[in-house]
UniProtKB/TrEMBL annotation:
Primary location group: cytoplasm
Domain DNA polymerase III beta sliding clamp C-terminal: 74-196
Enzyme class: transferase
Family membership noted in the UniProt record: Belongs to the beta sliding clamp family.
This protein's GO CC annotations: cytoplasm; DNA polymerase III complex
Name of the molecule in the record: DNA polymerase III, beta subunit
Gene3D superfamilies xrefs: 3.70.10.10, DNA Polymerase III, subunit A, domain 2
Keyword tags: Cytoplasm, DNA replication, DNA-binding, DNA-directed DNA polymerase, Nucleotidyltransferase, Transferase
Pfam families: DNA_pol3_beta_2 (PF02767), DNA_pol3_beta_3 (PF02768)
Length: 200
C-alpha cells in the first residue's frame, strides 16, 4: 500500500469491471468501514496501476494486482448432495481447540459426519503428541461422505470470514471435491475450501 495525493481521473458512471486488490488492502477498508458512521458510502477510484478508497476524511491507496483473478466459479459445483447446518461460533471454537494438536501434524483436521445422530465430530491424531476429538450437534441432510478432512488453517480462515452469521451451511459432495461455506440469513457470500485427501 502507498500513501499520496496522486491525481486519478474521476468517473461517475462506468460499465461492469473487474479489479484484483491485495487482501491486506481490503482488510484495511473493512476496518475503515467498521469504524465509520453507519450508512456512509465508500468512493472507489482507480487507474491502470492503483485504486483509491475514500470514506469521509479517510483515504487508502493500494496498488492493483496484475493478471486475472482465478476463475473460482469453475470450481463451484452446480449442486450439492449434502448440506450441514451448524452454529458458527460453536463450530469455530471446536475447530480452534482441535487445531492445537493439528498444528503438530500437517494441519489436518478430520470431520466425521453422522447423519443418523445428526452430529459432526472433529478429530486429530498426532503421532507422539496425542489425539483429540470433539463432537457437536448439526443438521445433516445426507450420510455421504462419512469422512472429510481439511487443512485446519484454511477452515478457520473461512469461519472467521463470515463473523456476522450465527449459523452457517457447509455444502459438499464427496471427500475430495470442493466444499462451500455460506452464512444462513443476512448477507450473502461464498467461501470455497478444498478438502485434503486422506491416505488409507
Amino acid at each position: 500500500m502507498q500513501e499520496g495525493e496522486e491525481e486519478i481521473e474521476e468517473v461517475t458512471e462506468i460499465e461492469e469491471f473487474e479489479v484484483t486488490i491485495p487482501a491486506k488492502a481490503l482488510r484495511e477498508v473493512e476496518r475503515m468501514i467498521s469504524m465509520g458512521k453507519s450508512g456512509s458510502s465508500v468512493t472507489l477510484k482507480f487507474d491502470e496501476n492503483q485504486v483509491i478508497f475514500e470514506l469521509g476524511k479517510q483515504r487508502l491507496t493500494s496498488r492493483k494486482l496484475e493478471g486475472q483473478y482465478p476463475a473460482y466459479q469453475q470450481l463451484l459445483p452446480n449442486q450439492f448432495t449434502n448440506q450441514i447446518n451448524v452454529d458458527r461460533k460453536k463450530f469455530l471454537g471446536a475447530v480452534e481447540r482441535i487445531a492445537v494438536l493439528a498444528d503438530q501434524k500437517n494441519n489436518i483436521l478430520k470431520c466425521t459426519i453422522d447423519s443418523v445422530n445428526q452430529e459432526i465430530s472433529l478429530s486429530v491424531d498426532a503421532q507422539d503428541v496425542g489425539s483429540g476429538r470433539e463432537s457437536m450437534a448439526a443438521q445433516i441432510s445426507s450420510d455421504e461422505p462419512e469422512e472429510i478432512a481439511f487443512n485446519v488453517k484454511y477452515l478457520i480462515e473461512g469461519l472467521k470470514a463470515i463473523p456476522s452469521a450465527s449459523e452457517i451451511s457447509i455444502q459438499l459432495n464427496t471427500a475430495t471435491t470442493p466444499v462451500v461455506l455460506n452464512p444462513l440469513g443476512g448477507f450473502q457470500m461464498t467461501y470455497l475450501i478444498m478438502p485434503v485427501q486422506l491416505r488409507s
